[in-house]
C-alpha cells in the first residue's frame, strides 16, 4: 500500500519535472507544455476565463478548468498541513497531496485533449511517397535507404505496408516510390515525416573522400475513406494498352500497366506493380484518391498550420526538416532542434525514429495549444 | 546450357553481328554471368524487338522478374536490379526467351499468371484468362453483394460455370464468396485437369465440383440435373466469329485451344447452348452472366426475344474498361422447367 503510494507520488513528481528524459507519453509532460500551465501564464488566464463566465469553448472545458482550480486550491490547503505537529495528520496530508497531484496531472491532460483539435484524418490510412532530390545517384541511394527505414518502421508499428509504385534507378537507387500504409494511428504518426530530408556523407561512388550533401523528399497523403471523398466515375479516363483493337478473347497481351487521369483536375496516377490489370487499377485508384483528397484538404490545413513550425501537407513538402549527418553519426530535426545519435540504429526504423516522431507530436500539440488559447475565446 | 547456347547462337544473329555482348559469349562465358538484371532485360528486349516479337520489353521484363522471384520487374527490389544473375538463372532466362522467340505466350512460358489477385498455373493449350474477364467476376460479385442474404439452408449461392478453362472465374468467385459452391464444367480434359490443380493450389477444392461435359451435346443439361437448380450461371464462352479466327496473333493461334475461342459463324454457337441449358437449370429469377463479343448484346438480345419459351430476359449490358459492350446480365423470369422446385434434391458436395 505504502510502496504503491510512493510510486504514484514518484511518477507524479517525475511528470511534473521540467527536465527529464524524453518520454513516450503523448502531449503532457514535455517541458514547453509544463511551462504553459505555469501560474500567470497565458493558458492559466485562458482557463480562468473559461472556468469563470466563459463556456465559449464548450461546457466540458469550463467544467474541467473549474475542477482543476478547485483541486489546486485543495492541494495548497493540504500542503499547509504537511508542517503540522501531529504525525498522523502529517501522514494523512502526505497521502492527500499525492492523490491531489495525480488528479491534477490527469485534469491537465484532459484539458490538452480538449484544446488540441484532433484532425479529421488522424485515423486514416495514408500514402507515403518518397522522391529523390538533388544529388544524383547518391540521392537515389539515400531515397532507397529511407524507403527501407519506413518499411521497417511500419513493421515495428505493426502497420500494413503495400508498395504501389516503385521507380528504381539503374544503379540500385530509388527515384520514386509510393506505398500505402495502414494501421492504428498510422497517419497521426507519419504526418510529421513530410518534408525535405538531407543527407551528409561520403557517397559510395565518391573517389576523393569528399562529403556530399544530397536530399530526398517525403510526402504523406492521408488516404480518404469512401465518405471523405466521392469521385464521379465519369470524371475518370482509364488508359491501358488494350484500348486499340478488338480486346477480349481476340488478343492476349501481358502489359497490365494502368494509368488513370482525373479529367477535371488533370491529376494522373499510374501503376504497373502487378500482373493483374485489375489490381493495378485498384492501386492506381488508391493513389489518385489520396492525391485528390490532399488537394482538397490543402486549403483548410494551410490556413490552420500557417504559423506553425511543423507543417503538414504540400506547404511543408519544400521545407528542410531533417539532416542525417553520417560523419557525426547524428540525425537532427530542425523543427524542434532535436538531435539523436547512432544513425545506423535510427535508420533501422525502430525505437529511435519512434522517439523523434513522439517528440514531434508533442511539439505539435504544444503549438496547437498555444494557437488554441491565443484565439479569442 | 550448351544445347541452349547453340540454339541461341543460331537464333540471335542480330546482336552478334553488331558485336554486342552476345558476340563474345561463346569464347568468354564468364562475361555473360556479369550481366545484371537491367542489362539482361534490355538485351532481350532488343532481341525480341528485332525479331518482331510483340511486347518486346514487357516480355523480357516478365521473364527476368520471374526468374528472380518477382511478379513484375517494377516490383523487384532495387538491389536485384544491379546484381548479376547466377549461371542457372541466366540459363533459365535463355530457355524462356527462346520460347518467346517462338511466339509462345508469356503466361505459358512462366507457367503461371495472376487473375483477380489469385496466382494460377497456366499450361498450353488451356485458354489464358484475359483482363476483361476480371471485370466479369467483379460484376457477379457486385450483384451477389446486393442480393438479400437469406438464400437457402446452405447459405451461399450455387453457381454453374460453363467452360472453366484454368478455373480463373470459378476460383476467384469461390475465394471471394466464402459461402458459395460451384459446379465447373469444360469439354476439354486439359482444362478439367488444370482447374483441379489450381483449386488444390488455392485450397478451394472442397467447394468445387469439376465436371467433364460438352454443353453443345444433346441433353447435356440432364447430366447436371442431379446437382440441383442453380442460383447463377457464369461463362466466358468461345465467342470469336469464325471468320475472325485466322486474324488472331500467332500467340493465340498456335498455342491456345481453338475450341475455347471459336464461336462459329456469328460467334453464338456455344452461347445458344449455354442459354438453353441455363434456362433448364436456373432457379426462378436466377441470373446468367456472360462475357461476349461487342456485337453480341444485340444479336443475343434479339435471339432471346425469338425464344420466349426459355423465359430469359436481357437485364443489362456492361462495357469493359475500354468502353466496348462486353458483358451481359440475363435473368430467368418464368417458371422452372420440367419439375417444381421442391422436386430437386439439394446439392451435396463431398
Task: Please describe the structure with a list of short key phrases separated by commas or semicolons.
heterodimer; A: about 375 residues; alpha+beta; eight-stranded mixed sheet; three-stranded antiparallel sheet; 11 helices; about 45% helix; elongated; disordered N terminus; B: about 350 residues; alpha/beta; Rossmann fold; two-stranded antiparallel ribbon; 14 helices; 9 strands; disordered C terminus; signal (chain A)
Structure report:
The complex is a heterodimer of chains A (377) and B (350). With 377 residues, chain A is of the alpha+beta class. Chain A is built from 11 helices and 11 strands. Chain A has an 8-stranded mixed sheet. In chain A, strand 9 and strand 10 form a beta hairpin. In chain A, helix 1 crosses helix 5, helix 3 packs across helix 4 and helix 4 runs antiparallel to helix 5. Chain A is elongated. Chain B folds into 2 domains: 109 residues, no CATH class; 220 residues, Rossmann fold. Chain B contains 14 helices and 9 strands. In chain B, the strands form 2 sheets. Chain B has a 7-stranded mixed sheet, sandwiched between helices. In chain B, helix 4 packs antiparallel against helix 5 and helix 5 runs antiparallel to helix 7.
Task: Describe the protein's topology.
The complex is a heterodimer of chains A (377) and B (350).
Chain A: H1 2-16, H2 31-36, H3 42-54, H4 59-80, H5 87-115, E1 126-132, H6 136-156, E2 160-168, E3 174-182, H7 186-190, E4 195-201, E5 212-222, E6 236-239, E7 258-262, E8 267-271, H8 277-305, H9 314-317, E9 320-325, E10 330-333, E11 338-341, H10 343-346, H11 351-374
Parallel strand pairs in A: 4-9
Antiparallel strand pairs in A: 1-3, 1-5, 2-3, 4-5, 6-7, 7-8, 9-10, 10-11
Chain B: H1 2-11, H2 13-17, H3 29-33, H4 37-50, H5 56-67, H6 78-82, H7 87-101, H8 106-110, E1 112-115, E2 118-121, H9 131-146, E3 158-162, H10 168-176, E4 181-186, H11 189-201, E5 208-212, E6 230-235, H12 250-253, H13 269-281, E7 282-291, H14 296-305, E8 312-319, E9 325-332
Parallel strand pairs in B: 3-4, 3-6, 4-5, 6-7
Antiparallel strand pairs in B: 1-2, 7-9, 8-9
Helix pairs in contact in B: 1-7, 4-5, 5-7, 9-10
InterPro entries (chain B): DNA_methylase_N6_adenine_CS, HemK-like, N4/N6-MTase_EcoPI_Mod-like, N5-glutamine_MTase, PrmC_N, SAM-dependent_MTases_sf, Small_mtfrase_dom
Domain Release factor glutamine methyltransferase N-terminal (chain B): 39-111
Keywords (chain B): Methyltransferase, S-adenosyl-L-methionine, Transferase
